[in-house]
Amino acid sequence: MLVRTYQPISFELDLPLLFSCASRYIRYQILSVYGHFNPLTLRLCQVSAGYFLSDLGMICWFYPSLGGLEYVVHHSLSAIAVAYSMYTGEGQLYTFMVLISEVTTPEINMRWFLDTAGLKRSYAYLINGVVIFFAWLVARILLFIYMFYHVSLHYDQVIHMHIFGILLVFGVPAALGVMNLMWFGKIIKGLKKNLSKRV
């Protein structure tokens, strides 16, 4: 039970807030998808890479109790993409578009806490499930669709990146998108099950 509490709750609540507050600044500062550096984007990449690496370390240390292979793949791909963007400055716009999807992390962790505390039948658990459904739909499904649309619109810029950057721009969001759809199916199934028990 104490394994997951290792992560500071305040960090998990502050990270999505940091990304959403910075998004207004980033939107006007990142004019292209390659070769851009500024102190704020560098700091956000550093924080994100640290978050993914620390979470990956915990997942590997307590494997498989904190998550299976899909969690290892998710965190590894994310850490590699963020680190690449941080060191080269390429693809930071797409890195931050994908990082916005981490706003679902506090809700997922809250669900784990409620489950571990034996509150699966509480209204808090039901409300958490509904919040996860909508947050996941917006941040991990619709945003990814928009990101792929944006990549297609700016393909002429993307192909000027280094080959590894191009592979990351197409490969990482595609892999994460497939996992997001898989997890979204589980979220829908769980929400239906929880709602049917209430009726």
TrEMBL record:
The chain crosses the membrane at residues 123-149, 161-184. It is found in: Membrane. It is a multi-pass membrane protein. Its main location: membrane. InterPro entries: TLC-dom, TLCD. It comes from the Eukaryota. Residues 1-196 form the TLC domain. The keyword tRNA-binding does not apply. The keyword Transmembrane helix applies. One of its GO terms (cellular component) is membrane. SMART domains: TLC. Keywords: Membrane, Transmembrane, Transmembrane helix. Pfam families: TRAM_LAG1_CLN8 (PF03798). This is TLC domain-containing protein. The lineage of its organism: Eukaryota, Viridiplantae, Streptophyta, Embryophyta, Tracheophyta.
